[in-house]
Amino acid sequence: MNSYHIPVLLNEVISYLNIHPGHWYVDANLGGGGHTEGILDKEGKVIGIDIDSEAINEVGQKHNLNIKTFDSHLEAYSPDLILYQDNFSNLESIISNISNRLISNSFDNKHYTKSPSSKNIIRINGVLFDLGVSTHQLEKASRGFSFNKNAPLDMRMNQLSEQTTAMDLINGLNQGELIELFFKLGEEHFAKMIARKIIEFRKIKAIETTDELANIILSVRPRSHIDRTHPATRVFQALRIAVNDELHSLKSALPQAFSLLSPGGRLVVISFHSLEDRIVKNFFIQEENMKRAKVLTEKPEEPTEEEIKQNPRSRSGKLRVLEKIS
Ligand SMILES: C[S@@+](CC[C@H](N)C(=O)[O-])C[C@H]1O[C@@H](n2cnc3c(N)ncnc32)[C@H](O)[C@@H]1O
Question: Is residue 271 lining ligand 1, measured as CB closer than 6 Å?
Fold first, then answer.
């Protein structure tokens, strides 16, 4: 098993991507490369994107790729696997940059199409988003994502170039802003009480660690035996989404991914909470209403009980698929 991250809904993803051997697919959330491996196994070619250099290094090393730094981000090239470190909200420019490099190195001359601006860009047959954080990011204490690992509150997916950390937000926002953050991005019912406690704590000292924050939340809402998740889950989720501006990135990436797809190509998205899922669902309905696409998943696919037993982190995964018509 992959200890970096166990891929969620792997068989479903590979089946929906409908891999054509030798054609290009984008894995916009490379992580430990579990889904990428599945595409490569079916002889598809993969452009793997991740904002986190640790994911690029992990998969690059596994495939013995020569990882290079360009303008403070990582890239690696081979005939069937390309890795690129960036935010997927820059998808069009990522694919355009990669296309230019491939053309100038005459790496692959068969699979190009014209972009709207008439430039040659790689023809993409499918794009996968597997949103959120990897097990590696949660488990590595120093990343400061988890209430189970005591560490400085960080939560940046891109530690190289992102400046604002969870510690900055939790100590810098006023009470009203904290309530709004926890309520909007965490759907946390105890937002007001937790925000009040945070302000009280800050009068004594700054909140610096995941343990300090988790204990403040537990003082408002102790864990009960009927809780399926830790009481700090929603606040930590809200902070992570805000630090990494996750919802804006998703909103901006979906139309770019769709416009890059060849006709018949598929957009496959796994989301892990209702805020993401709503964005995906609405985008899919919009494209279907415009008669540009067909939704292939009337209801989202979810992990089976067997998968959840083997990989409890998969439990909130929802997979939706859109096929481009023209
Ligand atoms: C759930 S994991 C992906 C796991 C992967 N599919 C696998 O099978 O190993 C999500 C990954 O997406 C990355 N990520 C999250 N937001 C991103 C963004 N806006 N742009 C690029 N990568 C992002 C995270 O750094 C993390 O490595």
Answer: no
7 lines ligand 1 (CB under 6 A): yes
The alpha-helical segments, DSSP class H, found in 156-222 are 166-172, 175-186, 191-204, 210-220
- CATH of region 163-243: 1.10.150.170
**Measured in angstroms, how far is the CA atom of residue 30 from the centroid of ligand 1?**
5
Q: Is 55 in the pocket of ligand 1 (CB under 6 A)?
A: yes
| pLDDT tens for each residue of the chain, 326 residues long | 568 999 999 999 999 999 999 999 999 999 999 999 999 999 999 999 999 999 999 999 999 999 999 988 999 999 999 999 999 999 999 999 999 888 777 655 556 666 666 567 899 999 999 999 999 999 998 899 999 999 999 999 988 777 899 999 999 999 999 999 999 999 999 999 999 999 999 999 999 999 999 999 999 999 988 888 899 999 999 999 999 999 999 999 999 999 999 999 999 999 999 999 999 999 999 999 999 999 999 999 999 999 999 999 999 999 999 999 97
Ligand 1: atom nearest CA of 50 is 22
pTM, whole model, 2 decimals? 0.94
Does the beta carbon of 50 lie inside 6 Å of ligand 1? yes
Q: How many CB atoms within 10 Å of residue 192?
A: 16
| Domain range list for the chain | 10-135+248-324, 163-243
Structure tokens given for 87: 């935010």
Same fold, 10-135+248-324 and 163-243: no
Q: State which fold the 10-135+248-324 domain adopts.
A: Rossmann fold (3.40.50)
